[in-house]
Structures are given as C-alpha cells and as structure tokens.
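Entry 14. Ran structure prediction on the chain below.
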Amino acid sequence: MLLLLGSYTAGFNNCVSPSGPSSVLYSSLSVANRMMVGRTISDERVVGTSQPGEVALDVRHLECGPLVRDVSFSVRRGEILGFAGLMGAGRTEVARAVFGADRPQSGEVYVHGKKRAIRTPEHAVAAGVGYLSEDRKRFGLALGMDVEANVVMSNLSRYLSFVGFLKSQPMRQATEKFIRLLNIRTPSTAQEVRLLSGGNQQKVVVAKWLDRDCDILFFDEPPEKQRTTFLFGIAAADTDDAVGGCPIRRLDDGVRPTCSFK
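Output, structure tokens:
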C-alpha cells in the first residue's frame, strides 16, 4: 500500500512542446505525461483483479503543530492513496507525525485494526510503516556506502548468521532482486550510491523499504521527472514481489487527491 504526497497541480495549461514554445494549450494529463517522459504512458498493463482488502491504516483526529489539525483518513490494503496540497499545506507533516518523526499532540493511529502508540520511527517500522522522505540524501540514504548496504540496512537482522555475522550471499541476492524489479541502473551491487542518478537513488530507497516488507509506505514527493514512469513501473511489476505481498490497485491518469488541507 502506498500513500503519495505531492504538490497540487491546478492544470497543465501553460505547457510548451519539447521542440520549443508553442501557442497550443495542453489540458490533457496524458499529453502532459508524454511530454515529460518522452513516450506514451499506458496503464492497461497494470489492471489487476485484486480488490482492496481490510483497512490497513486508520488515522483519527491527528493534530501535530500548526499545520495538522484534526486530520482523519483511512486506507485499505492494496490501495494507493494520494495527498495533494500547496506548499505548506501539511502533507509532509501528516506523514512525519504518523511515522513518529514528529510527536503529535493528539490523535489515534490504528494499523491493521490494532491501536499503535507510534512515538518514534522505530515504533513505526516495527508496526510495518515505512517513510520515503522528500530529501532522500539527508534522510534516506547512506551516500558513502554501496547499493547492497543501502538496500539491506533496514532489515539487517534477516541476514545475520547464528554466530552474528552477516550472510553476504542472501544480501547480494536480495539486492539483485530489487535491481531487476525496480530497474535500478547500476553497474553492480557494489556501486556507491552517491554515484547513481537521482532517480536511481530514489529507487534504492524504495528497495530498502520493500526489503523490510513494510505494509504501509509513505512516499513523499517522488522526483518530478521520474514520478509517472516510476509509479507505473512499480504497479506493472509482479505485485507479490513489488510490495511484499500487498496488491497494488490500478493507477489512473496520475494520483488524484483524496484529502486536502486548508
């Protein structure tokens, strides 16, 4: 299950063609997507037969600081829920409060029907909640370490041997799996993350949380240029592998806002 947080776009009325300025006004999101990524995006291949399941995350009357006031929402297993708003509307603050990065003044969080007291990110991860920060370099990656270390770092206990040593082969196999799944462009698992492009760095962060088998992922501001192709890439992948057993619903023409903040 994904929760996407992004800036609200009122329209695409002032787009220009890649070949230069144009007097044509584009109002179709599909046309704008094609202009951004250089090819036509089709979502027909991601249509599945799975239906949303039980409520996985239920947030009630959350309050945290001046921007998050009495916020309530729920999302079911298999859903993609989008939050949209202008800069400063409180999207990131909601995610950080649910994840335990900021301490809320009040509110209740239920994960799979069980009330959780999430006061720190450690509590959130233990409850199956992951958070992909907008600032991946500061909060999502160890830039001086390689791809393999970054992918497995949130789940090291899985790779410990009986005597406490890390098992290199399972770590490498898991990393190679996510490189294939998310199409991470890297020469090898030993490549330093700082040498990857921004979009591939973002994919490494996603792989880290998928390896953790988080049921709930907050995705704060995917990179603008990679947003459409990246989300369709996840949805087009085999869903059992893509999100640790959570099915992904069909993406529409972009993520439509289901909650807004004043």
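The chain has two domains: 1-6+49-128+214-262, 143-212. Will compare against last week's run tomorrow.
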